[in-house]
Amino acid sequence: MDKELFLKKYEEVYRDMYRYAYFLLGHRQDAEDIVSDAVVDAYSRRGELRDMASFKGWIFTILSRKCSKKRKEYATKKTLSMDGNSDEDEGVISGDRIMDKRAPDPETRAVAESLLNQLEDIDREIILLHALGGYTSEEIGKILKLNAATVRSREHRAIQKLRM
Questions:
Q1: How far apart are alpha carbons 33 and 129 in whole angstroms?
Q2: Which ranges of 26-120 would DSSP assign to H, the alpha helix?
Q3: Range of the domain at 154
Q4: How far apart are CA 58 and CA 113, in angstroms?
Q5: Are 68 and 121 in contact (CB under 8 A)?
Q6: Is 98 helix (H, G, I), strand (E, B) or coil?
Q7: Handedness of CA 116, 117, 121, 125 (dihedral sign)
Q8: Contact 130, 139 (CB under 8 A)
Q9: CATH assignment of the domain containing 115
Q10: 3-class state of residue 12 by DSSP
Q11: What is the Cα 68 distance to its own chain's centre?
């Protein structure tokens, strides 16, 4: 895939990538950094992509893995901070927020974040990939390396939990 085609495909998905990373990480700067890292990795590995129709799923797989790593870093930082061994308690999950024209008001966003934070990480990713990325259960299954039926059942249970 040449540079121009890569950029064209990236332009089609960058907003969804950023929204996904931002909802998972809750911190603007980290979301921007993770998306940038994912794009750099994808660009350097663009020769591995055989089917252009799979671009969105392929780049979201890279992004998903990077977000998972970052969330593990958050957990480690939080544990260190609670133990008193780190002075870096930046409040990353509840850190600075940005809003665009399509974003909900701050109160609605806070409620949504609170609800999403009640879910297990994998269920949160499934909900966000479906709601923000528009992925089908089959596509989400490929990204997260799960069976499509498992994705559907986890999504259904997560939605039920959110309704309670």
A1: 19
A2: 28-44, 55-83, 106-116
A3: 3-163
A4: 26
A5: yes
A6: coil
A7: positive
A8: no
A9: 1.20.140.160
A10: helix
A11: 8
